[in-house]
Amino acid sequence: MNVQTKSNIKGFTIIEVVLVLAIAGLIFLMVFIALPALQRSQRDQARKSDVSSVAAAVTSFTSNNRGEFPDADQIAEYADVSDNIDGFVVSSSDGAQTITAEKGETDKYNRIIVTERSVCGTSSTTGQEVKGGTARQFTTVVKLESGNGAYFCLDS
């Protein structure tokens, strides 16, 4: 008797399944590695936008109050900022000084520092230099998460 046996079993081998799972794992790993950097970048963009909003609020306040410079509470009334910002620090500059994020705040990223009579100088990871300016000039500074904690400074 001539019996032929055919094996028509269809499916994936264990090697194929393991290979697909390994590739899927690598893709998920790349996404989870890139996601925190993307979130930091988005928060920094919001901080930069908030700095512009605060600068506009200070300009608006000074023009509405005959050149008087606002304090931190008055800036909070005029400025519309994101949830990334916890508050403001207002200081004065009679010459060159270095602003650091630890100047009066508990969280190093979530405060905007407004310095009257100043212009932006050089920035580093240790601080933002501001130079003395005229009575109408001011700087608005925030520390960023990316770039090893660099500062973003905006002149009026």
Portion of residues in beta strands equals 15-25%
Alpha-carbon distance between the two ends:
99 Å
Summarize model confidence as the mean pLDDT: 83
Unreliable spans are none
Major beta sheet, strand line-up: 1-3-6-7
What's the count of strands? 7
Task: Determine Rg (CA atoms, Å).
Answer: 27 Å
Query: How many strands, which pairing sense, and closed or not: the largest β-sheet?
Result: 4 strands, mixed
Tell me the structural class: alpha+beta
Helix content: 25-40%
The total count of helices amounts to 3
Gross morphology = elongated
**From N to C, what is the helix and strand string?**
HHEEEEEEHE
Total domains: 1
What would your notes on this structure say?
This protein is of the alpha+beta class and 156 residues long. Helices cover 40% and strands 24% of the residues. The protein contains 3 helices and 7 strands; from the N terminus they run ααββββββαβ. The chain has a 4-stranded mixed beta sheet, with helices on one face. The chain has a 3-stranded antiparallel beta sheet with strand order 2-5-4, with no helix packed on it.
Keywords, please?
156 residues, four-stranded mixed sheet, three-stranded antiparallel sheet, 3 helices
